[in-house]
Amino acid sequence: MEASADPYSPYDGGGDGIPLRELHKRGTHYTMTNGGSINSSTHLLDLLDEPIPGVGTYDDFHTIDWVREKCKDRERHRRINSRKKESAWEMTKSLYDAWSGWLVVTLTGLASGALAGLIDIAADWMTDLKEGICLSALWFNHEQCCWGSNETTFEERDKCPQWKTWAELIIGQAEGPGSYIMNYIMYIFWALSFAFLAVSLVKVFAPYACGSGIPEIKTILSGFIIRGYLGKWTLMIKTITLVLAVASGLSLGKEGPLVHVACCCGNIFSYLFPKYSTNEAKKREVLSAASAAGVSVAFGAPIGGVLFSLEEVSYYFPLKTLWRSFFAALVAAFVLRSINPFGNSRLVLFYVEYHTPWYLFELLPFILLGVFGGLWGAFFIRANIAWCRRRKSTKFGKYPVLEVIIVAAITAVIAFPNPYTRLNTSELIKELFTDCGPLESSSLCDYRNDMNASKIVDDIPDRPAGTGVYSAIWQLCLALIFKIIMTVFTFGIKVPSGLFIPSMAIGAIAGRIVGIAVEQLAYYHHDWFIFKEWCEVGADCITPGLYAMVGAAACLGGVTRMTVSLVVIVFELTGGLEYIVPLMAAVMTSKWVGDAFGREGIYEAHIRLNGYPFLDAKEEFTHTTLAADVMRPRRSDPPLAVLTQDNMTVEDIENLINETSYNGFPVIMSKESQRLVGFALRRDLTIAIESARKKQEGIVGSSRVCFAQHTPSLPAESPRPLKLRSILDMSPFTVTDHTPMEIVVDIFRKLGLRQCLVTHNGRLLGIITKKDILRHMAQTANQDPASIMFN
């Protein structure tokens, strides 16, 4: 056999220009080129005839090695390309490999769309179940029940004989105090039942199914491994409990958790394709596309979904992933549209069409709504994080079921008397967004009509508010206070809970109140100079629904700090294409105001609270420290745990592994020279030694371990040596001790490194891990460095 040279592709490691070598050598012979001109062919032991199973995989709660995964993928791609001309079967395999990316995102889109449609339909039906039941067809919700009825009137289109409230069924009364109390009791009973069932299922079967899921998905996409977080049990329980949580009336939404559901689908389907199942970096490309599909079905906003994935959740987003995200979002939206869960032939519940343009003067109230959104965002993040931290540090956190029951009970008791809080939150937003046309019977549209207006036109002129509007405003003010308080305590409890819809509801309530105020101001003071130019008597100048839409966007922007994707989501959501400028003004204002109180959004705050190792690309590192200031070991620490190239035994290495908890060890030529050879991972060492003991005869505790190319000459009676050069990373990333930390942080962010070795004139000095960087950043920001708690 001839010695064949492996093609290594050079990779710029932040100025170090070290050639990368792939980690699994393919045959028994290979040529090693060590950055110079030394070429030598070496025969490895039969241990390396085949790759050691398990080497190159990762433990739970560890970070992936992006560079290694990219090398593995390039090597796989070269192998397939070199073989494809050998036979028709190899050609077919090559085509299958090329198309597998599109196949996996198609399947993810189909599954996400179908599950979203199912969740929408089930949540609507169970929400209405709290108030009554359809006797003619039990599976119909309230609206569907009255569609086919001939006895409905225009004013009371939601009342029909087929729909029975619980009071009618139990005590036979439709009106009166007895009926009200009975309906109240049944509402609380169903709300508590749904909440209890949801939290019990989460606690027993899938603890990872709670919360929104977006902070964890951001962390997973940055290269962290949380086993089971995107598994089939989590998917199944999250889908069921999401319906129950929304139906229980808690102040939460289903939009954030739908991103988690879509990512679970993407993860499960990626296991059908070896290209993705064996490579963690490639799998994250599928998850980026899946998160786009999740937002696409959550809001009916395919383009907004792609931008959300790019702006908010993805860590690594190549152009190929952009196209696949776009395709996944398209497929998911198409499936949802085919299911038509809302019965309005739209992708969303609150599609609106306004007919009046907006005027320049209105930018002032829009910017004020942006300020409100930023203040609400800053308040919510601080209050919610303080409450979640308290939950973690006190006994209260040990009783998640009790907490959910208490929150659900308080929510149900306070929500029922107020018609705006009793409504499903999505329905409430729909009502607040809707413009008052001639066909609206809501009390928000109870204006005093002008008797001179002889014909009904599409654009109804601005009119004085009637008693219904004033009482509605009072109810909305109470609903606003209720929503603000309850959302702080609800986000983070142990049921699936999204934040998009409650934040939008708070903004929509505030916006509608402001809109009505501006409308009345324009009606009574149309001779003021700001109104005189464009608002004549009898004209329709102000659209209160538009203010609700702008307020919703501003509040959601204040909490999440999204900008571009949020504006696109809102205009896709509502169809309000000509209102992009007001939306942009409000969203940017809310971001600036929110950033004045703290730079991080709610998801970043929860990532930090949970101690996930996440390096946020949006954060700037401005301190003038050097690599030597951050590296370990420090002066007071014991010396760095290292392996030597060829004078340690198997027993020495096993002792070192048992005595320490480090994830890897630098390999040096000798203790005297401290010259760096490479880096060996703890997991790979453990697996390789176990495998050698099982498969090779003569490997004992006193066997010499050799990381060098040539085995040193050993006495004749000594046991057989163990060669572990194949598991050694020959080109670990190194920086000198005088490298500014600003550059080191950039290298970690852009290459997704786990660790970086620090050298001085080629001698090993220390090591910097991702955790060290996070601790150092916490210290420079005067935070507790011990809050970085995951291994």
TrEMBL record:
Domain called CBS: residue spans: 631-695, 728-785
Compartment(s) where it occurs, according to its Swiss-Prot or TrEMBL record: Cell membrane; Early endosome membrane; Late endosome membrane; Lysosome membrane
Membrane topology annotation: Multi-pass membrane protein
Gene3D superfamilies: 3.90.1280.20, Clc chloride channel
UniProt keyword list: Antiport, ATP-binding, CBS domain, Cell membrane, Chloride, Endosome, Glycoprotein, Ion transport, Lysosome, Membrane, Nucleotide-binding, Repeat, Transmembrane, Transmembrane helix, Transport
CDD domains: CBS_pair_voltage-gated_CLC_euk_bac, ClC_3_like
GO terms of molecular function: ATP binding; chloride:proton antiporter activity; voltage-gated chloride channel activity
Transmembrane segments: 99-123, 187-209, 229-250, 257-274, 286-310, 359-381, 401-420, 472-493, 505-526, 546-571
Main localization, broad class: membrane
Superkingdom of origin: Eukaryota
PROSITE patterns to which the protein is assigned, alphabetical: CBS
GO cellular component, one term: plasma membrane
Matching Pfam families: CBS (PF00571), Voltage_CLC (PF00654)
PANTHER family: CHLORIDE CHANNEL PROTEIN, H(+)_CL(-) EXCHANGE TRANSPORTER 3
Family: Belongs to the chloride channel (TC 2.A.49) family. ClC-3/CLCN3 subfamily.
Function: Strongly outwardly rectifying, electrogenic H(+)/Cl(-)exchanger which mediates the exchange of chloride ions against protons. The CLC channel family contains both chloride channels and proton-coupled anion transporters that exchange chloride or another anion for protons. The presence of conserved gating glutamate residues is typical for family members that function as antiporters.
Name of protein: Chloride channel protein
Protein source organism: Nothoprocta perdicaria
